[in-house]
Amino acid sequence: MPGRKGITLALCAALAACSGAAPVAQRANRPMAAGSIVGAQSPLWDTPASLVSGDAPVYPINEFLTGGEGHAEVEFTVTREGATRDITVLSARRPAFGRHLAAAVRGWRFEPARMDGLAVPSTLRIEFDFSIDRGYNAPPSPRDREYQRERAGGR
């Protein structure tokens, strides 16, 4: 659904258990800005891995049509060549969110982390929030309210 208005995806990048990256707004199925995902500092490398190219995940059509919102979190390895591998879905509000995020990550390319000038593999963990922009005064759907309660820690 390239170009479909009203779909906004927010992305938070973190390396392993480290965080600190600001959310980056993305549109579904659009190229992501180079450098929008950068791993955190670590004693394992001098320079962290940084996104070179890739598309944001496609919003799952069934979730979009029913107003479903949520998040997914994946962990993956960036190889010495900058490819991604060993992609694991750690959590997902709905299984489709995890599948779509993992599929997007498969196509991402990185500038690998470097130690003493040499490329080294690194592990990154990202969380991607899938949300539908309904306009300024649109009331939240029942699924939105359920998701907001879950994110706030109440069930």
From TrEMBL:
Predominant cellular place of this UniProt entry's protein: membrane
> What are the start and end residues of every segment in region (Disordered)?
135-155
What is the species listed in this Swiss-Prot or TrEMBL entry? Dokdonella ginsengisoli
Q: Which UniProt keywords apply?
A: Membrane, Signal, Transmembrane, Transmembrane helix
Q: Does the keyword Transferase apply?
A: no
* Residue ranges, compositional bias (Basic and acidic residues): 142-155
- Pfam families, alphabetized: TonB_C
Q: Which SUPFAM superfamilies match?
A: TolA/TonB C-terminal domain
Compartments, record wording: Membrane
Domain (TonB C-terminal) spans 44-139
The record ties this protein, via InterPro entries, to: TonB/TolA_C, TonB_C
NCBIfam families registered for this protein in UniProt: tonB_Cterm
Q: What name is this protein filed under?
A: TonB family protein
